[in-house]
Amino acid sequence: YTTLFRSLWLTWWAKLIYALVIILLAWLLFSLYDHQMTLRHNLDLEREKNSRQKMLDDERQRFFTNMTHELRTPLTLIIGPLEDLKNDTEIPLRQANKISLIHNSALKLLGMINRLLDFRKTELQRQTLCVKNGNVAKVVNEIVSSYKELNRNRELNYIFHISPTVPQRMLFDADVVQTVVNNLLSNAVKYTKRGTITVSLDTIGTAADQQLSISVADTGIGIPEYALSHIFERYYQVEDSDHHTSGTGIGLALVSNLVKLHEGEVIVNSQE
Description:
By secondary structure, the protein is mainly α. About 60% of the residues lie in helices and about 10% in strands. The protein has 6 helices and 5 strands; from the N terminus they run H-H-H-E-H-E-E-H-E-E-H. Strands 2-4-5 form a 3-stranded mixed sheet, with helices on one face.
């Protein structure tokens, strides 16, 4: 039997099988090597493409930021003379109303430019907190009062509520709080034609870990359920032809960035 098996292992067809197995293994190894080299090459191409795309995006963003800065300067120079004309009592009422309209539009445009710059700053993580001990209720109340004074809609009312638990003084960044509340109120006004916009200050948590809660609620059209998880994303706008309003889609994204910068949390509850 041993001699027979030796003869079988050394036959020509056995040697042919050995050769075929060796060729198959070599082909598999070559295919594996070629596949790995192809993957590595594609990965290098993808990295190079992403790097070029990032450089292009950064260049666009720099151009966008620089142009926004350049727009703010002449706009500020325009607003100054407009304020002088607006306060001029000798100008006829009809022209004064037009000047007031131009002035308000210029202020809106300046506000949009400032929001774009603030948003860009938070995107680049260059904005830092300037925390001071102050009266947060006074800061928020001033913002709500300014909206009340500018309100020309008789069907819309503003309510400001402060809980007794809110401390008289606390550590916060006034600029951040002003920007957040302004954006939330502006958004509420856009989608509330009648009813009430309520701004509330309260405290949550335990005495050892107490946090301030700022709530902006309205009786407006509400937000569709599918949009709730997206409204704080940059450039996101709810597609609704029935209630279309102009906007940039960065206001709430800026709010989210600033709240996180202030080590807070932003939450939305709404229904149509």
